[in-house]
Design a protein that fits this description.
Blueprint: H1 2-27, E1 37-43, E2 47-49, E3 52-54, E4 58-65, H2 69-100, H3 106-122, H4 127-183, H5 194-208, E5 214-217, E6 223-226, E7 235-238, E8 241-242, E9 245-249, E10 257-261, E11 268-269, H6 276-312, E12 326-328, E13 339-341, E14 356-359, E15 369-373, E16 397-405, E17 410-416, E18 420-428, E19 434-440, E20 445-447, H7 453-459, E21 489-496, E22 499-504, E23 511-517, E24 520-525, E25 538-540, E26 543-544, H8 554-564, E27 575-579, E28 582-586, E29 596-600, H9 606-611, E30 616-623, E31 628-634, E32 643-651, E33 654-655, H10 659-665, E34 668-672, E35 677-682, E36 687-693, E37 703-707, E38 710-714, E39 723-727, H11 737-744, H12 757-797, H13 801-833
Helix pairs in contact: 1-13, 2-4, 2-5, 2-6, 2-12, 3-4, 3-11, 3-12, 4-5, 4-6, 6-12
């Protein structure tokens, strides 16, 4: 009976504890993170009685925590993925609301800007339209700044959210380290309290909602947590220690965030965070907000550059060239947040073009002209040949051997660009037939000897740098000083100018006004020769020199020159003398205003000048008013030779010229000498710049002509005697060309992708919208995955009231049965005691 009593007693005790466990499960059915507990009952060791073993009852072995490591890991991973979409979707939707809003978005402001430009183009003289244009231009700049400000707010807000979440990660890591410390009291996980393990897993799930983690569990249940690519990298929790994460701005790109683990201990850079709430915020910042912000900055830069380029090319109401309409604050260069309107005065709005054409009211024809300018593109050279282009003072450049092919009899020395200042181009020791030729792009021959028909056909063509349709003219050939072509002071021969010598005070050493010294021309060592000098071979300051019979000696040349100049006034007379075997020409010391020019007459050549000991130099005083093409010709190449050569030396002080502004400064007249022939004349100097034939446009009924980038279009064919004047539109009211060009920007593909400004902005809005749609779809899909993972976890670790109720009934019945056993044992014991 004692055995029966002990067996019943063991069952009562075991099932009492089982009932307590089930009760605990039922009580924690809604406790977050609670894992269902199950009881483990084990039979007691049997007792041998004779040859048999009799059972001794049961005992309560353990409370088992229902847990699956794989299912729990899957739940954490799906939680990380789901949580990454929530902030991404939230932030992206807010960005769409900002960019697409009419009161903040850019499209409305851009449309208003171009609409006001269109209105101004219809009435460029209207002060009201000009003020409205400035107002809408300022509105466009303000809209750029407002958008950039909203982007900046999202940037700060998302950064603060990331920093807050990182702080929460650090707190959770510290708690897990404390958990590990508590678990160190036991060597096996089975010995750990279930509630402690539940708390550990709850912290891990909470941590996984912030960032994707990797875990490894020790035998006692302590956890190692990593946020790196492997468990050996990016360790946040190990044993009883935790490592904090710090958020820093990137040194390379301050707009990007970097994460450093243990920054004040052993710093370790974290890889990019792509999961969890932080991953969602970082995805928004790096993949949506930063590209959108960069796109806005780029769009603002393109807008400012394109609008300013057109505006600078126009003329304002005062006749001045336009200034920049937009600009950037110094500390925000190229940023949408720094764009601002630079003009406040409506009269400074450049609505007109830089050129204007005026029809002569007495024209017999009905043709109306329209003028436009485009940067011209010419064939042929763009600068002087080789190192000659590098001869900027004090540099002197020499080409020791320039080849002249006998087949054409000339070679190009390149182009003297408009604006070249104080040029000296020298032929050193030229041959008998060698000389320089200088022509304009329209075939106006300025220096040299007249070209024959063959030379004209070879030299005056587009391939050598000439204008299409250029014709040859000797009207300005070797003109007197100053030459008749645009007043240019160009000379070929030997030249000496008045020189200036710096003076200093003998006592104080201070610089004084320079001292002017009379011109003096000194040649090279003179070499006697037998050949005479023909009349009109030389000119001395525009005076033709007479013939000189041979043989030539230094003394005979000095006497010849002094005799030729003896009738000149003493104060300006040029005197020839000898110095160290060299011929010297000089002015009186009192004459500090006139230079000396020993040039070539009608029969002279550079080789004749060489006989007197002088090199032949092409000299241009001041700046060249037009592009000049330079050739060196040789009319005396021996029949047996295929080429000849010559040495050329150059020096100039600077190149500073703008063809467009030079054209604006002049006034050109297009005069039709017949129905098809026309001249282009400079009204200031009356220089004929071009003589051409008008070629009708085969694709339309109109005709046009071009000159140095200017294009004149006629509505109908002009008539003989018609005249059209082109000027620089200096009063600024001549036309609306600039404002029309500004309006045209609206439909031009200005962005690198070839889109218009508005389309580029709308495309960026669409890209942000695509991200929002993709994030919404991903969130829905990941929600399903997370729910499945949660159900899998609940199926193992969750508390089911139905199951617990069934267990409760089962354990209750077992408890009652064991109690009945004990009651039976007591009844039997009482019966034994009553036996007498």
């Amino acid at each position: 009976m004692s055995d029966l009593l002990s067996i019943g007693s063991s069952g009562v005790t075991a099932y009492q504890r089982a009932l307590a466990t089930v009760s605990n499960n039922i009580a924690n059915v809604n406790t977050d993170g609670y894992s269902r507990q199950d009881v483990s009952l084990t039979a007691n060791l049997p007792r041998q009685i004779g040859n048999i073993y009799l059972g001794t009852g049961t005992h309560f072995d353990a409370v088992q925590r229902k847990y699956d490591a794989f299912v729990e890991s899957n739940l954490r991973n799906s939680n990380s993925d789901l949580q990454s979409q929530k902030p991404l979707l939230s932030y992206v939707n807010r960005l769409i609301d900002i960019m697409g809003d009419e009161s903040i978005g850019l499209t409305t402001a851009m449309n208003l800007f171009f609409e006001s430009a269109r209105d101004l183009a219809t009435d460029p003289a209207s002060v009201v339209s000009r003020n409205i244009f400035l107002r809408d231009a300022d509105g466009l700049a303000t809209r750029f700044r407002q958008l950039a400000g909203q982007f900046d707010l999202l940037d700060k807000e998302s950064r603060q959210a990331v920093e807050t979440d990182v702080g929460q990660i650090n707190a959770l890591s510290a708690q897990l380290a404390q958990m590990n410390k508590q678990m160190a009291k036991h060597s096996l996980q089975a010995s750990q309290p279930s509630e402690l393990l539940d708390q550990r897993d709850s912290l891990l799930r909470e941590l996984s909602s912030l960032v994707a983690i990797k875990t490894r569990f020790e035998s006692n249940g302590a956890v190692i947590v990593s946020v790196g690519d492997t468990l050996n990298q990016g360790i946040l929790v190990s044993q009883t220690t935790s490592r904090a994460i710090n958020v820093l701005s990137s040194i390379i790109d301050p707009g990007r965030l970097e994460f450093i683990i243990d920054p004040y201990g052993k710093p370790e850079t974290m890889p990019a965070i792509t999961s969890g709430k932080i991953g969602g915020a970082m995805s928004f910042r790096d993949q949506v907000l930063q590209p959108a912000s960069d796109s806005l900055d780029n769009l603002s830069a393109v807008t400012v550059m394109a609008v300013n380029q057109v505006h600078r090319d126009g003329v304002d109401a005062k006749g001045q060239l336009g200034d920049d309409l937009f600009g950037f604050a110094t500390e925000k260069a190229g940023k949408a947040s720094g764009i601002q309107l630079l003009l406040q005065d409506a009269s400074q709005v450049a609505a007109a073009g830089q050129f204007r054409v005026i029809d002569n009211p007495l024209n017999s024809g009905t043709a109306q002209a329209r003028v436009a300018y485009a940067q011209p593109i010419f064939q042929g050279p763009t600068q002087l040949l080789g190192d000659l282009a590098l001869a900027r003072a004090p540099q002197i450049s020499t080409l020791p051997s320039v080849t002249i092919e006998a087949s054409q009899g000339f070679t190009s020395l390149g182009l003297i660009p408009m604006g070249t200042q104080s040029l000296d181009l020298t032929l050193q020791t030229p041959g008998p037939g060698q000389s320089l030729q200088v022509l304009t792009r329209d075939g106006r021959h300025l220096i040299g000897s007249a070209l024959n028909d063959t030379q004209q056909g070879l030299m005056v063509k587009a391939g050598n740098g000439m204008e299409v349709g250029a014709t040859y003219s000797t009207q300005t050939l070797n003109g007197k000083t100053p030459a008749t072509y645009l007043g240019i002071d160009i000379f070929m021969g030997a030249k000496a100018s008045v020189s200036m010598v710096q003076q200093f005070n003998a006592t104080t050493g201070e610089a004084q006004a320079p001292l002017a010294l009379a011109a003096k021309l000194t040649g090279n060592t003179f070499v006697d020769s037998a050949d005479p000098i023909a009349a009109n071979t030389f000119q001395l300051n525009d005076q033709n020199l007479p013939a000189l019979s041979g043989p030539l000696t230094l003394a005979s040349v000095v006497n010849w020159l002094n005799t030729a100049t003896s009738n000149q006034p003493v104060a300006s007379r040029i005197t020839a003398s000898v110095l160290d075997g060299k011929l010297v020409l000089s002015r009186p010391t009192s004459n500090t205003t006139q230079d000396i020019r020993l040039g070539l007459g009608a029969h002279g050549t550079p080789s004749d000048l060489q006989r007197l000991g002088f090199n032949t130099t092409l000299s241009i005083e001041g700046a060249t008013p037009d592009d000049l093409l330079v050739f060196v010709t040789d009319s005396a190449i021996p029949a047996a030779a295929t080429s000849s050569s010559v040495s050329v030396q150059a020096q100039f002080s600077d190149i500073a010229g703008d063809m467009k502004q030079a054209l604006r400064a002049s006034q050109l007249k297009v005069s039709f000498t017949s129905n098809t022939q026309y001249q282009i004349i400079d009204n200031r100097t009356q220089s004929v710049l071009a003589e051409r034939t008008l070629v009708p446009d085969p694709l339309s009924a109109t005709s046009s002509l071009s000159y140095r980038g200017l294009k004149l279009e006629f509505s109908t064919a002009p008539k003989q005697g018609d005249e059209f004047t082109i000027d620089g539109n200096h009063d600024g009211i001549g036309n609306n060309e600039t404002m029309l060009a500004l309006v045209a920007l609206e439909s031009q593909g200005l962005t690198p992708s070839g889109m218009t400004l508005t389309d580029a902005y709308i495309e960026r809005v669409n890209q942000v919208g695509n991200v929002a749609r993709q994030a919404a779809i991903a969130e829905q899909a990941l929600e399903v995955v997370y729910r499945q993972a949660q159900e899998a976890r609940d199926g193992i670790s969750g508390v089911s009231l139905d199951e617990e109720a069934s267990a409760l009934v089962r354990f209750q019945q077992a408890y009652q049965a064991n109690a009945k056993v004990m009651q039976t044992a007591m009844s039997l014991f009482d019966s034994i005691l009553q036996i007498r």
